[in-house]
Design a protein that fits this description.
Blueprint: H1 2-33, H2 40-84, H3 89-96, H4 100-109, H5 114-118, H6 127-133, H7 138-170, E1 194-198, E2 223-228
Antiparallel strand pairs: 1-2
Helix pairs in contact: 1-2, 2-3, 2-7
């Protein structure tokens, strides 16, 4: 059973890695290709800065959402579980009213905080109940449902954020490379210029073009020869 769960977890991680690669690589290439070559170093630095800042910000958002999920259901679950093991209702209510932050980090570290939270109350309980409360079974089974609720809220937010990112990526259009395809001149805009040279020796070597005739100089006496550029 444990081996099957490990394979399922490995498959989820594989799908997550494939999805990140399929999304991150094309979008990073799109950002770099949209910049001129001399600005791509700056663009890469800005992109990495935004990515690292978003990762740090997402950690705070995810932990906040998990704590909100814990706070909505953990107090009642913790109070009922402690009372069921013989803890006085007043002490159970006191422990359940504590902020869920410490309980969440205790769960992440694999530590059972019940002994520290109850203090000397544990010594007044029957030995079997005290051993169960401070063992490796009570605390994980107690917080599994509230912790799952907090994770569901965080994952729902992650799904919405991924959908927003996918729509933004879709709206950027097709492939674009800066300066790779210069716009060609429209048909009919290129006009052959006819240059005629004056016959006067004093003006030889100087060209004159009439803009009103599309770059052509009208036929006039004193001109000879024709050269196209």
């Amino acid at each position: 059973m444990q081996l099957r769960a490990l394979w399922q977890f490995a498959g989820i991680l594989l799908l997550n890695g494939i999805g990140m690669g399929l999304f991150a690589s094309p979008n990073r290439a799109g950002i770099m290709n949209s910049l001129p070559p001399e600005r791509r170093g700056v663009g890469g630095g800005m992109s990495a800065t935004f990515q690292n800042s978003a990762m740090v910000l997402s950690i705070g958002i995810f932990f906040t959402l998990i704590i909100l999920g814990l706070a909505s259901s953990l107090p009642a679950t913790l109070s009922h579980g402690l009372i069921a093991q013989g803890v006085p209702p007043a002490d159970a209510a006191r422990v359940a009213a504590l902020p869920p932050v410490s309980i969440m980090f205790a769960a992440l570290l694999g530590y059972n905080p019940i002994q520290s939270l109850l203090g000397h109350v544990v010594d007044k309980l029957p030995p079997s109940h005290a051993a169960y409360l401070t063992g490796h079974t009570f605390f994980p089974s107690l917080i599994s449902a509230p912790f799952s609720s907090g994770l569901a809220i965080a994952f729902d937010f992650a799904i919405v954020a991924c959908l927003v990112a996918a729509v933004a990526s879709l709206l950027r259009g097709g492939k674009y490379v800066h300066g790779a395809q210069p716009q060609p001149a429209a048909p009919g805009k290129q006009v052959a210029a006819t240059v005629r040279w004056r016959q006067d020796p004093g003006q030889r070597g100087r060209a004159r073009r009439d803009p009103g005739c599309g770059g052509r100089i009208p036929e006039a006496p004193g001109y000879f020869g024709e050269e196209r550029r």
